[in-house]
Amino acid sequence: MRYAILLLTAALLGFSATVYAEDMTPAPAAPPAAAARVFSDAQRAEVEEIIREYLTSKHPEVLMDAMKELQRRDQASAENKSKEAISASKDKVFSDPNTPVGGNPKGDVTVVEFFDYQCGYCKMSEEGVQKLLKTDKNVKFLYKDFPILGPMSVTAARASIASIKQNKYVKFHDALMGVKDHLTDDIIYQTAKDAGLDVEKLKKDMDDEATSKIIAANLKVGGDIGVRGTPMFIVGEQIYPGAMQYDQLKKSVDDARAPIRKN
What residues have CB less than 8 Å from 257, skipping those under 6 apart? Predict the structure, then answer.
């Protein structure tokens, strides 16, 4: 750990070892491995102690800033990989004919949400999603059921997908997202009934192989593009993991729309 801190701090502070000949003339800079060998064990221990004191006592903010920068780079790297994966799976993400569509099917900006009906953060985002679709009539919204929080999540996803056959997906989706209690079979079916669905037909359609294929496809494409939790939004070409409020959603749509307006 101490040696790792030494290397990290050396990189941060631009530390480099220069070997001097007996006549005090600077020798050519040694490569890292060679530079390490010019220090004796005692000298190395002294340097490490100086750095330790610098980081822990005098300037701990340096280490915090370094960790934040490393986290930022890791996140940026992960986002870049996700963008590349999304580009490679573009048709499955944006053009899957089995994906329910809300808002304006011909909208100029597409928003995709991967969600789970038992996800509290998804439910926190729902108010903002509904407000966005009410206030911006030029947004196309794609619903990706992504049940990862247990068997009841799968049941809810199967029910919501089955509701497509009764042309009530969005209404049922919004109702399920509005449920505050932990989901149960009874709650799901009562919510379906309240949304105007034929519950018996819904149950039959839930067992349809086509329903299973849609869920499997969502889980597959989500895994391919790096969805590790819910919700995850894709707005235009940008990725937004985690809950989003209305103002954040609106800004993300405005940012995605800006290049369109310029053209």
Answer: 108, 109, 236
Place of tokens 């580009």: 87
229 shares a domain with 210: yes
Full residue range of the structural domain in which residue 37 is found: 2-87
pTM assigned to the model:
0.70
Q: What are phi and psi of 159, to 5 degrees?
A: -65, -45
Query: Can you tell me the distance from the alpha carbon of 6 to that of 155, in angstroms, rounded to the nearest whole number?
Result: 53
Asked if residue 103 and residue 210 are part of one domain, the reply reads yes
Tokens representing 139 are 């947004």
- Identify whether residues 126 and 213 lie together within a single domain: yes
Buried b (16+ CB within 10 A) or exposed e, 216-251: eebbebbeebbbeebbbbbbbeebbbebbeeebbbe
Q: What is the pLDDT of residues 15-59, one digit of tens each?
A: 444 433 334 444 455 555 555 557 788 888 888 888 878 777 777
Structural domain count, the chain: 2
